[in-house]
Design goal:
The complex is a heterodimer of chains A (393) and B (423). Chain A has 393 residues and is mainly β. Helices cover 7% and strands 64% of the residues of chain A. The longest helix of chain A has 16 residues, at 2-17. The radius of gyration of chain A is 23 Å and the shape is elongated. Chain B is mainly beta. Chain B is 10% helix and 42% strand. Chain B contains five helices and 26 strands. Chain B is elongated, with a radius of gyration of 31 Å. The two termini of chain B are 50 Å apart. The chains are: A mainly beta (393), B mainly beta (423). Strand 5 (123-133) of chain A pairs parallel with strand 1 (23-24) of chain B.
Chain lengths: 393, 423
């Protein structure tokens, strides 16, 4: 019960702590922020199949083998640099892409409650300019700040129908908020360094919106042999309503979130080595709103592949090392070009407590290095993902 | 130990909540399109009426006095009232006796014209006066009573002594007085004490007096051999001057003692001509209730002030709205428009006359247009320009009035932008 109370409190803070870091989030609904834990990040995974049972948003079947009620928490600091035309800069932020709780129902079933990031809209643009005042040139700084995120809260259920076949379903809602502000702040002196006699007040305007909408998913797992697991997930996003906040005079919109298909497989090559591969597909066109359609990327695919090698024992269990590669296309174009992300990854898991060969408490770590590109815009990205899993009664 | 390592790792991850979000140059995808423009509104387009009122405060309210002899036509004399002679001293126990003494006058050597030795004289004043209302001609000039000096400039006076003030040697002058004078100054006249009048003895004198002290050579009955100086308290340091400055005609005045105020009654236009940046080549009118005013300045042009009335120090000009214009000149005033009064250097009213003085009205004008946006009508607003403190200086600030090249104007800087919408 204490897990449940804690878990109920966590989603309340999620929209405020979800934080993005890239100006790529300026397009459409923002930058896609996949709710993946450290294991999936390390393997270049898409969030479907996994050798180690865990809690993944929109995929309750991944929690079927958990032995005890389990909470997972994922923190994800990321940093990097960007370059566009002759301009360069850097960024740093921390996201919390996954919060999850799973409660086993006997040995064949599980229910899950998850909060996972979906879109990230944290970014800013700064530009310098001048204005003529009394014949003198006075500098000003324009700042456009976007602060927002969309999160999915989902309730899931999964059941193993036979030793080789399992089904999971989840339903939930999108929740989020967005505040976009523009400020023009004037310098206190002219460009000739002559102090102004009277300060010039800043100019500022803002818009504020809330996000709401339904979503659901269906997951199918098939284990054709003890060494092979195949999984597929289809996620339905419904209509995401973007409504102006109360008291703010702004336009709203409705966006049709397209179906997203994911397939994945995990194959045990020998007793210590496993291969993971997966792909996703969705069509970000005909989104129901002309402004969003204008930046929709159309058909986007992602794929990834990774190896897991359980090289030795450490502390209370095995120490799997993971290596992966992931190539993703983002749903919204930026500067009229499709955005592509490439990362290579490395990770491991440290098991702190286990029972029957399955971990009760573990920490997963993944480090990714890569890039995002869109026409003349390019980012160099470093992403550290850490997931803490704690189970028990 | 291992647990501590992992806890530390998690704490480090949490510490990453401190964000440096991505900041990039304008990539052209923003549609806010902010534009800032300047407009200068001529006097006739925003001022309904400008009036200058005088008589605020008195010479008794400032912390210094004045001595002038035909300085640019100005004559001024300092008056101070003596306290009763004490019978005992804090310095030596016993009943006091006095012999001779001296009158010490302290000057402000940083302000005033003190570049050469100046002869100073002190007189005894026997006529009663009202410190808060006395002038050159009247000893009392209140609403209920008006009584002229028996002779303008302090009435009939008795010369007590004189000395030469040498600025190079210090900031004071000491005028000795004999024992008979000491006795005369201590005698009561109709139950009240005497006064002292300080004046210059030669033309061209202009000195600011900061204090007058009477020091009596004293001893006690019990110990006549111990001689010391006993200071006699003085109070009501003030001054009178002649002639009073005439009311300005065609120009504006702020400050002085008694002080002057300039009151603008403004009807700021709601529509102004937009710049090409805002309107494009076709031109347009900008509704100021639909933009954000970033800066509003009342632009005044400093005017050469008559020599005798040029400020000797920075004039701090304050602006407040006039709450009941129909009660002028005694209308109550509202809150200060600018955060702090504007300091105007004295040179602007002499060698740098013609310089523009920019007084911030930003908050007031923004409030005016907020009201106009709600009511549909730009409210007529009156503001008073005065000095802080009032009175603060003997000299006053002068500004060009309407009709000339330096007439007051209102400069506005405003910004317009498209609404912040969704991407």
């Amino acid at each position: 019960m204490r897990y449940f109370r804690l878990f109920l409190a966590l989603p309340l803070i999620l929209p405020s702590v979800l934080a993005g870091q890239s100006v790529l989030g300026a397009s459409g609904l923002g930058m896609r922020a996949e709710p993946l834990d450290a294991i999936q990040r390390a393997l270049g995974g898409v969030g479907v199949t996994t050798r180690m049972p865990t809690v993944l948003p929109g995929n309750p079947a991944a929690s079927l083998d958990l032995l005890a009620p389990t909470i997972t928490f994922t923190g994800q600091p990321q940093w990097g640099t960007f370059e566009v035309e002759s301009e360069e800069g850097d960024f740093f932020a921390t996201r919390f892409p996954v919060l999850g709780f799973a409660y086993p129902l006997g040995v064949d079933g599980v229910i899950t409650f998850t909060a996972g990031s979906q879109f990230d809209q944290n970014w800013s643009v700064v530009e310098r300019g001048t204005v003529e005042v009394k014949g003198d040139s006075v500098g000003h700084t324009d700042t456009f700040l976007s602060d927002g995120a969309v999160t999915a809260l989902q309730l899931g259920w999964a059941r193993r129908w036979s030793t080789s076949f399992a089904v999971g379903v989840s339903v939930g809602v999108y929740r989020g908020g967005l505040e976009r502000t523009f400020f023009r702040r004037f310098d206190g002196e002219t460009t000739d360094s002559v102090a102004l006699e009277n300060p010039i007040n800043a100019f500022g305007i803002l818009g504020r919106w809330n996000h709401a909408g339904p979503l659901a998913s269906l997951s199918l797992f098939w284990d054709p042999s003890p060494f092979l697991q195949v999984g597929a997930t289809v996620a339905w996003g419904g209509t995401l309503k973007v409504n102006p906040a109360r008291g703010v005079d702004s336009d709203g919109r409705e966006v049709s979130i397209p179906l997203e298909f994911k397939v994945s497989t995990t194959a045990a090559l020998n007793s210590t080595l496993a291969l993971n591969a997966g792909a996703t597909y969705s069509n970000w066109s005909d989104l129901g709103n002309p402004s969003v359609d204008a930046v929709g990327a159309g058909r986007v695919t992602s794929y990834g592949v990774g190896l897991e090698w359980e090289v030795m024992n450490f502390w209370a269990g095995g120490l799997p090392l993971r290596f992966g590669f992931r190539r993703s296309e983002l749903p919204f174009r930026f500067l009229e070009k499709k955005v592509k992300e490439n990362t290579v990854s490395f990770g491991f898991t440290i098991v702190m407590a286990q029972a029957l060969g399955l971990p009760l408490a573990a920490m997963d770590v993944a480090f990714e290095a890569g890039s995002r590109k869109s026409g003349g815009y390019e980012e160099s990205l470093r992403r550290l993902t850490m997931t803490m899993r704690v189970g028990g009664r | 130990m291992k647990r501590y390592i992992f806890l530390t790792l998690m704490a480090c991850a949490a510490a990453g909540c401190t964000e440096k979000i991505s900041t990039a140059p304008d990539l052209g995808f923003l549609r806010v399109n902010p534009r800032t423009a300047e407009v200068v509104i001529p006097f006739d387009d925003f001022v309904d009426e400008v009036l200058v009122f005088g008589g605020y405060g008195s010479t008794a309210e400032i912390d210094h006095a004045l001595v002038a002899v035909d300085y640019g036509g100005l004559n001024a004399r300092t008056l101070v009232l003596l306290d009763f002679y004490p019978t005992r001293s804090d310095q030596v126990p016993g009943l006091l006796t006095f012999s001779d003494g001296r009158i010490v006058i302290f000057f402000d050597t940083l302000r005033g014209i003190v570049d050469s030795p100046v002869d100073i004289e002190v007189f005894q004043v026997v006529e009663e006066w009202h410190p808060a209302s006395m002038t050159w001609d009247f000893a009392v000039d209140t609403a209920g009573e008006q009584r002229a000096w028996s002779q303008p400039g302090g009435g009939l006076t008795t010369l007590l002594g004189g000395a030469t003030f040498r600025p190079a040697q210090g900031d004071s002058v000491s005028i000795p007085i004999d024992s008979a004078t000491v006795v005369a100054l201590g005698e009561l006249i109709d139950g009240r004490t005497s006064g002292l009048l300080v004046t210059g003895a030669e033309p061209g004198v202009f000195l600011q007096v900061v204090d007058v002290v009477l020091m009596l050579t004293s001893s006690t009955v019990q110990d006549p051999d111990t001689v010391f100086e006993e200071p006699i308290s003085v109070f009501n340091l003030g001054f009178m001057f002649d002639p009073a400055p005439a009311a300005p005609l065609g120009w504006l005045r702020v400050g002085g003692t008694p002080s002057w105020r300039t009151v603008f009654t403004m009807s700021i236009p709601r529509l102004v001509t937009g710049t090409p940046e805002i309107c494009g080549s076709v031109g347009c009118q900008v509704d100021l209730t639909e933009v954000e005013v970033n800066l509003a300045e009342l632009v005044l042009t400093a005017r050469q002030t008559q020599l005798a009335w040029q400020p000797q120090d920075t004039t701090r000009v304050d602006i407040r709205p006039v709450l009941n214009p129909e009660l002028l000149p005694k209308s109550p005033l509202g809150e200060r428009v600018a955060a702090v009064p504007k300091g105007v250097p004295p040179e602007l009213f002499s060698v740098q006359a013609g310089t523009e003085v920019l007084l911030s009205l930003t908050s007031l004008v923004a409030q005016i247009f907020d009201t106009a946006a709600e009511t549909g009508t730009v409210p007529v607003t009156s503001i008073a320009l005065f000095t802080e403190p009032e009175p603060g200086l003997i000299g006053f600030a002068s500004f060009e009035g309407p009709g000339g090249p330096g007439a007051p104007v209102l400069r506005l800087l405003y910004t317009v932008a498209n609404p912040v919408g969704l991407p």
